[in-house]
């Protein structure tokens, strides 16, 4: 025998499995095969290709995974998140591809954790229970590819047998991971099978479709109004009839809404750990605003895989539209410059537990979204669609794509906070804004971002590899 074959399994390990069920000893039958457990173990190791469990715990991601698993468990009579996921996936009841991805990632990592923790104990248990010596040797040798030093130590250190609950946990984790294998690089995560792909290819995310439909309806409204009022612009109308006269709004929130309209920034970027800084200047007699935005969707490059999102970006605007002029005048009345736009959010749960940054960002987005929707109903009482902050982001992109300026796709990506110029294909459309008055892009002077946008280089585009600028008062 080899050293692997001489792993010290003792006869003591052959004792029946104990479970605390009315004080009785219960023997738990195996629902998975030895080969299935090995295959699932390999998949569990693959799931750790980019981020270890320690990284997930340190960044707070593991806490979000637990919340998602609990949410899925509540949605199914079995209270099993794995069964709930498979049921929802089979019926294709996801609200969006991102929703499916978030739940899948959470359950895969939770299943992988259980498999990596319990499989070595399970292997020892199965091998010691095997009475046929030839079969036992076969089982041990089948483990050779997986028996690194850590696994050996886990097997040797297994002093007790798996209880009923742990065997059931391992069974469910193995069966789930075999059906839903990990995809750590997300190369095929959002792809459905070929049979499902034909049905899903023409269907957009509900939220994305809603934003585009709202913008399309507002632009149609503007075209109708323009027949009577050639300079009519739905955003200026929104500002003049809903934002300025509203007695429930303070100037700080008005400044946030003006910034949304002028820069197309994300609503979550007004969170207290991010924020938007604004500085003013007077260039050749023209009032200008300089926005510095801390990016909300940022990830680092890992193992050659590019990250996403700009850490910061700057957008310089020459004040020509109503909200830009108001914001410039508002800042002139303040003693402190630059100003920093941040919206408060509750930092703790009712239990006293600290909320994760992503949850605080979500709450700021929801709060600002409710405000914009309420103001939208005032400005456009007959609009059947819901106005949200992201509609301004789409309208900003549509203005850019409609042309009339000297910037290119890399400038738009930088202004939106994207690392890649390809991401903007999900935002706006040139046709929806072409020929309309009130383009916000025409007053944008310059865009700078923390890192270069990924796209074929152009000679006239200045290098953006410089440290983060400091706004001067």
Automatic annotation (TrEMBL):
CDD domains: DNA_BRE_C. Keywords: DNA recombination. The keyword DNA repair does not apply. GO terms for biological process: DNA integration; DNA recombination. It comes from the Bacteria. Residues 1-20, 186-206, 450-473 are annotated as: Disordered. GO terms for molecular function: DNA binding. Transmembrane segments: none annotated. Residues 450-463 have a biased composition (Polar residues). Gene3D superfamilies: Intergrase catalytic core (1.10.443.10). This is Phage integrase family protein. It comes from Roseovarius lutimaris.
């Amino acid at each position: 025998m080899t050293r692997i074959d001489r792993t010290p399994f003792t006869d003591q390990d052959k004792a029946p499995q104990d479970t605390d069920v009315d004080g009785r000893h219960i023997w738990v039958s195996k629902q998975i095969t030895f080969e299935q457990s090995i295959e699932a173990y390999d998949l569990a190791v693959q799931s750790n290709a980019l981020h270890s469990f320690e990284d997930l715990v340190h960044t707070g991601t593991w806490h979000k995974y637990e919340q998602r698993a609990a949410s899925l468990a509540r949605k199914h009579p079995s209270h099993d998140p794995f069964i709930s996921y498979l049921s929802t996936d089979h019926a294709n009841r996801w609200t969006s591809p991102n929703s499916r991805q978030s739940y899948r990632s959470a359950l895969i990592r939770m299943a992988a954790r259980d498999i990596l923790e319990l499989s070595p104990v399970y292997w020892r248990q199965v091998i010691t229970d095997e009475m046929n010596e030839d079969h036992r040797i076969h089982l041990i040798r089948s483990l050779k590819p997986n028996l690194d030093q850590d696994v050996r130590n886990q097997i040797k250190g297994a002093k007790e047998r798996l209880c009923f609950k742990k065997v059931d946990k391992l069974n469910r984790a193995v069966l789930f991971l075999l059906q839903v294998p990990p995809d750590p690089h997300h190369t095929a995560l959002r792809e459905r099978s070929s049979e499902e792909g034909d049905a899903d290819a023409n269907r957009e995310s509900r939220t994305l479709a809603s934003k585009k439909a709202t913008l399309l309806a507002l632009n149609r409204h503007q075209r109708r109004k323009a027949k009577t009022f050639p300079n009519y612009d739905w955003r200026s109308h929104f500002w003049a009839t809903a934002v300025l006269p509203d007695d429930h709004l303070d100037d700080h929130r008005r400044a946030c809404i003006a910034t949304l309209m002028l820069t197309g920034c994300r609503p979550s970027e007004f969170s207290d750990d991010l924020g938007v800084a604004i500085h003013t200047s007077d260039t050749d007699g023209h009032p200008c605003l300089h926005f510095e935005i801390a990016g909300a969707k940022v990830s680092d490059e890992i193992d050659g895989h590019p990250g996403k999102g700009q850490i910061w970006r700057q957008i310089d605007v020459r004040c020509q539209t109503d909200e830009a002029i108001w914001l410039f005048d508002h800042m002139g009345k303040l003693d402190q410059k630059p100003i920093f736009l941040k919206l408060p959010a509750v930092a703790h749960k009712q239990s006293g537990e600290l909320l994760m940054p992503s949850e605080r960002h979500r709450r700021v987005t929801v709060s600002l979204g409710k405000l914009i929707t309420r103001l939208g109903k005032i400005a456009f009482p007959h609009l059947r669609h819901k106005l949200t902050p992201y509609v301004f982001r789409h309208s900003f992109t549509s203005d850019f794509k409609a042309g009339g300026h000297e910037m290119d796709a890399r400038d738009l990506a930088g202004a939106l906070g994207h690392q890649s110029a390809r991401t903007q294909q999900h935002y706006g459309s040139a046709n929806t804004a072409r020929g309309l008055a009130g383009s916000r892009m025409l007053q944008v002077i310059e865009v700078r971002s923390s890192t270069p946008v990924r796209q074929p280089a152009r000679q006239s585009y200045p290098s953006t590899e410089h440290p983060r600028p400091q706004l001067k008062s």
